[in-house]
Amino acid sequence: ESEVIASYACFSSQTPTLPLDCPPGNMVKLLRVFYGHSPSQGCAFNTSDCVLDLPPEESYPCIGRQHCDINLPQTEQGRWIPKCEQYSTYAQANYACVPGNDDDQT
Q1: Rounded Cα gap, residues 12 and 9, in angstroms
Q2: What is the DSSP code string of 35-85?
């Protein structure tokens, strides 16, 4: 079973992308991409956080690639999360590196 890797960023840090990287000969297998609101203003998932999962089609550029970047909204507040009526404080992508195509073609 592949190890799950988390890439995350706070919205306040103005990070434009979540970088996903795998070693040569491996490709990114996206498991989950979501926005989260942390009551403690954390930048990565905690079980008490309120989250909004992104639909898979927003992450298509990553399929079959060794490296890819998920673009984040350029705003201090991130995305509105209706479930908890808060703006997200961070974005996170969970992925695994699986053996595969290392051509890195678009």
Answers
A1: 9
A2: EEE-TT--SS--TT-EEEEPPGGGGGGGTT-SEEEEE---SSS--EETTTT
CA neighbor of 50 nearest in space, from 95, 9, 88, 12: 88
Name all contacts of 54-57 with Cβ < 8 Å and 24+ positions apart. 56/30
What confidence tens digit (pLDDT) does each residue in 8-45 have?
988 876 677 889 999 999 999 989 999 999 988 888 89
Contacts of 93 (CB under 8 A, 6+ apart): 6, 7, 8, 18, 20, 30, 32, 33, 59, 70
The two tokens of residue 103 are 């051509």
Whether the CB-CB separation of 12 and 76 falls below 8 Å is answered with yes
In which element (H, E) is residue 86 found?
strand 86-87
